[in-house]
Write a structure and sequence with these properties.
Order of helices and strands: EEEEEHEEEEH
Number of helices: 2
Helix content: 10-25%
Shape: globular
Length: 107
């Protein structure tokens, strides 16, 4: 049996914020609607999502997947797992790269 079959590397890619529904925290392959709040731009996959982002300030924030610190989604560096649409938010590119390295070391 091939020992590498069970050791498949998890792949991540950086994605532009305008391809992220910041309410559902999911990746979209196309540009999606946005709403501007306090000079920051937030994206939602539909008017309902952008409306919720407008009404619920706590939905505009996430926690850095490496450090656990609060990060504004409009300013975040975003990664997605290649095999699904799950989004990970980071305060910096360095944090995102460290997260990927940590995941590689853990697998």
């Amino acid at each position: 049996s091939d020992p590498d079959i069970h050791h498949q590397e998890i792949a991540y890619e950086f994605v532009a914020n305008d391809h992220v529904c910041m309410l559902n925290n999911s990746y979209r392959a196309e540009d999606i609607p946005s709403v501007s709040i306090n000079d920051q731009t937030y994206h939602g996959c539909c008017e309902s999502c952008t409306g919720q982002l407008l009404k619920k300030p706590n939905e505009r924030f996430a926690f850095d997947s490496l450090t656990g610190k609060k990060v504004d989604k409009s300013l975040a560096v975003t990664l997605r797992k290649i095999d699904d649409s799950k989004i990970y938010y980071f305060k910096s590119t360095e944090n995102a790269k460290a997260f990927i390295q940590k995941k590689k070391n853990d697998s």
